[in-house]
Amino acid sequence: MTTHGTTHSHATPVSRALDGLQAVLGERLVLPDAPGFAEAAAVVFTGEPRTPAAVARPGNTAEVAAAVRAARDAGLPVTVRSGGHSYARLGTADGALVIDTRLLADVTIDPAARVASAGGGVSAIAYTQAAAEHGLATGFGDTGGVGVAGLTLGGGVGHLGRRDGLTIDNLVGAEVVLADGSVVRADADENPDLFWALRGGGGGLGVVTRLDLRLHPTATVTGGMLILPATPAALAGALEAVLAGPDEVSAIINVMKAPPMPAIPAELHGTPIVLVLPCWSGEPDRAEAGLAPLRALGPVVDGLAAMPYPALFAGGPDLGPAVPVVGTGFRDVVDEAWAATVIERVVGAPGFAVVNLRPLGGAIARVAPDATAFAHRDRRVMVTAAMPVPEAVAAASPEAVPGARAWLAATEQAIGLGDAGYVNFMGSLTGADLARAYPSATLDRLGTVHAAYDPDGFFAVR
Ligand SMILES: Cc1cc2nc3c(=O)[nH]c(=O)nc-3n(C[C@H](O)[C@H](O)[C@H](O)COP(=O)(O)OP(=O)(O)OC[C@H]3O[C@@H](n4cnc5c(N)ncnc54)[C@H](O)[C@@H]3O)c2cc1C
C-alpha cells in the first residue's frame, strides 16, 4: 500500500500502523494528502495552524480501540474530539492521530427508566431532539453543536442545572476505551474512581464511546430573550433574581454591545445591553410568576414565550471562524459596584467582547464538592469574559489578538475572576490553568486516577 506516500520497502512504524488502521477504517482514515483533510481536521476555533498526522473517524467501539492501538504502535500522540468546541483547541494537535468520535452519534431513549444511552460523538442538539420526542431532556449547555462528551467531561453548565444539577450529575455510566485498547465500563460500581474523574476531570483518560445519562420531564419551557438596559441595577438585579428564585428558573446573562441580529431591534445594535436568556423549566402555569422578578427589571425587549425545550438552542450570533480569547472564573459578590465594572469593561473593549454570567446554586450546590471532579459547588455565579477575534480581523491586523488578550487580562483583574475557573471555558490547560480548574485535593486525586488508567500519559496531549 502507498496510502500516505510511503511503501512497505521504506515502511516506518508510523506508516505500517496507519496502513493497518486504513485496512480497518478505509476512507475514514483521512490522511493529509487526501481530499477533505482540512475539513476533517478543522475545529471550531482558529489560531496558529495545526496539522495532525491523520484523522480517524471510527464508527464503533472496536474501531476506536483499533485507532488507539494503531497510534500506540506508531508512537503517535493522540487527540480525541467530538463537537470540536474546545477553546483550548484540544481536538487537534501537530503530528497527532485525531480520533474523531462524531460517527458515534446514536441515541437510544428508555422513557420508562428515564435514561438515554448516547454514542460518544453525539452533539447536544441531536441528543436533545431525540429526547424531546419523549418530552424528556438532559441539561447540557446553551449551544447545540457542542459535543455531549466534551461538555460532560468538564461538567456541563446550562439551563437545567439549578433544577437537575450539572450534566455530570446526570451521568449514570460511560464506556471508555483506555490507552491499551481495552474497553471498560465506568459507573458507581465498576471502576468508580474512573467514573469520578470522568465527571468534571476534563478528559484525557481515554476515549468515551458511550454515555448513559438520566432524563427529566421537560416538554415545554418558557425562554427567549429579555433585553435589559446596561445599568448596574439591572445587571445585579437579574443575577440576584435568579439566585433567589426557585430551582426551575435559570438564566444565562450576556453583557455586550448588541450584535446586529434580526431578533434585536436595529436601534439597539452596537449599544451596550444586558441580554438575559432565561429558562423556566417548571410547570408551565407557574412560568409567569417564576419569571416575574426578571420582568420587573424593566426590559426594553421582552421576547419570552413558551416553547418546546429544543427551541432554546435556536439562534445565537454566528461569529464565524475566530481566535478564542477567553477567561473563566467565579464570583460570589455580584453587587451594583461590581456590575458597574463589568459594564465598563465591555463598553471600553477594543472589539466585540462579552461577559457571560451564569447564576449557579440549586441542585448544583446540593452535590458534595468531592462527589465529582467538578468541585466548585458552592460558588454563586460562573463568569466568563471573552473577546473572540474573527479570523479575518486577526489576519488583517496583527495587533487584534494581542489587543484582545490585553483586554482580557485587564478585565480579569478588574472584575476579580479569582483563583478558580471552569475547565471547559479555559483557553489553555497548562499546569497553572489546571490549578485554577481544580482545588489541590481534587487535582491530587485526578493524578492518582490518571496514573492508574493512563500511566504513560498517552491521552495527556493538552
Ligand atoms: C459556543 C460555545 C458555547 C458553549 N457553551 C457551553 C455551555 O453552555 N455550558 C458548558 O458547560 N460549556 C459550554 N461550552 C464549553 C464546552 O463545554 C467545551 O468547549 C467542551 O470541551 C466542548 O466539547 P466538544 O466535544 O464540542 O469539544 P472537542 O474540542 O471535540 O473536545 C473537547 C475536549 O473533550 C475531549 N473529548 C471530546 N469528546 C471526547 C470523547 N468522546 N472521549 C474522550 N474525550 C473527548 C477532547 O479530548 C477535548 O479534551 C461552550 C463552548 C462553545 C465554543
Question: How is this fold's topology laid out?
Answer:
Elements lengths: L12 H13 L3 E2 L6 H5 L12 E3 L4 H14 L3 E4 L15 E4 L6 E4 L4 E5 L4 H9 L3 E2 L10 H7 L6 H4 L6 E7 L5 E5 L4 H7 L8 E8 L1 E2 L2 E4 L2 E4 L2 H13 L4 E9 L14 E9 L6 H9 L5 E2 L2 E4 L13 E2 L2 E6 L4 H12 L6 E6 L21 E6 L2 E2 H6 L3 H16 L15 H7 L2 H14 L9
Parallel strand pairs: 2-4, 3-4
Antiparallel strand pairs: 1-2, 5-6, 6-10, 7-11, 8-9, 8-10, 12-15, 12-17, 13-15, 13-16, 14-15, 14-20, 18-22, 19-21, 20-21
Helix pairs in contact: 1-3, 8-10, 10-12
Flavin-adenine dinucleotide (FAD) binds next to β3, α5 and β10.
- For the residues shown, what is the average pLDDT? 95
**Integer count of domains:** 3
Number of helices: 14
Main β-sheet: number of strands, strand sense, barrel status?
Answer: 9 strands, antiparallel
Provide the low-confidence segments as ranges: none
Described by its quaternary structure, the protein is single chain
Question: So what's the CATH class of the largest domain?
Answer: Alpha Beta
Percentage beta strand:
15-25%
Q: Count the strands?
A: 22
What can you see in these coordinates?
With 462 residues, the protein is an alpha+beta fold. Helix content is 29%, strand content 22%. It is built from 14 helices and 22 strands. The chain has helices at 13-25, 37-41, 61-74, 124-132, 148-154, 161-164, 192-198, 232-244, 287-295, 336-347, 391-396, 400-415, 431-437, 440-453, and strands at 29-30, 54-56, 78-81, 97-100, 107-110, 115-119, 136-137, 171-177, 183-187, 207-214, 216-217, 220-223, 226-229, 249-257, 272-280, 301-302, 305-308, 322-323, 326-331, 354-359, 381-386, 389-390. Strands 12, 13, 14, 15, 16, 17, 19, 20 and 21 form a nine-stranded antiparallel beta sheet that branches. Strands 5-6-10-8-9 form a five-stranded antiparallel beta sheet. Strands 1-2-4-3 form a four-stranded mixed beta sheet. Helix 1 packs antiparallel against helix 3 (61-74). The longest helix has 16 residues, at 400-415. 50% of the residues are buried. The model has no long low-confidence stretch (mean pLDDT 95). Flavin-adenine dinucleotide is lined by residues 43-44, 80-87, 90-91, 101, 120-121, 141-143, 146-147, 149-151, 153-158, 203, 207-208, 424. Residues 48-218 form the FAD-binding PCMH-type domain. One of its GO terms (molecular function) is FAD binding.
